[in-house]
Known about the structure:
The complex is a heterodimer of chains A (about 260) and B (about 15).
Chain A: E1 2-6, H1 10-19, E2 25-30, E3 34-40, E4 46-53, E5 59-62, E6 66-71, H2 72-79, E7 87-92, E8 98-104, E9 111-117, E10 135-140, H3 141-152, E11 157-163, E12 166-172, E13 177-182, E14 196-199, E15 203-208, H4 209-215, E16 224-229, E17 235-241, E18 245-251, E19 254-256
Chain B: E1 2-4
Amino acid sequence: xxxxxxxxxxxxxxxxxxxxxxxxxxxxxxxxxxxxxxxxxxxxxxxxxxxxxxxxxxxxxxxxxxxxxxxxxxxxxxxxxxxxxxxxxxxxxxxxxxxxxxxxxxxxxxxxxxxxxxxxxxxxxxxxxxxxxxxxxxxxxxxxxxxxxxxxxxxxxxxxxxxxxxxxxxxxxxxxxxxxxxxxxxxxxxxxxxxxxxxxxxxxxxxxxxxxxxxxxxxxxxxxxxxxxxxxxxxxxxxxxxxxxxxxxxxxxxxxx
Amino acid sequence: xxxxxxxxxxxxxx
Lengths: 257, 14
């Protein structure tokens, strides 16, 4: 059987809100390492990878590796019933066809359990090779969200260019064009407010803003976001989940016809 | 014009 108890239940609620519009059904893989998920969006352009390490849970028991197929929209409906301060426990039996979500209020005066049917999902696990990136930009997550939202009112695609000068986000549409440049800025009070540019080589890649905006739904998970880019690899947009792991989005670049 | 590439071609199958 498996049983995970997450004191900061709101993390799981935030993860679901971040991915449920991108991915419909997914297998959650449970092992002694942690709770993870890898899934592509329906058009096979983007891939989501989630890892919540076992050490981040207050209690984590997983007797044997288990793959639980879930409809993310249904899971989100259930997790929306948990209060933001609730402790969430996930339970399942080996070979069973249901998963139980238990919500406890912080004062322990309200305890709810919700059972959800599991599904058989045939999904291909893809191997994600470790890569060296030409450029990595770390910036405040809210700033990145604002940029993607602003640019999508003007164009459909964004060109992200990293040079010594900084990182430039550009778009073009029927009404005109826009360029937003963020320079490296490490002289801030809090490290999460910094913009840090690690450039080995300049890089310039084109992406669909529709996907970028979808990824920024993960903004409540983390104060900062990192963008890892190489000219021959998908973009990695990573939100670290404090003390537990990460939520990563991989997006294939658009190429010139 | 740009066309979208599929993500799976960058990763290892199986």
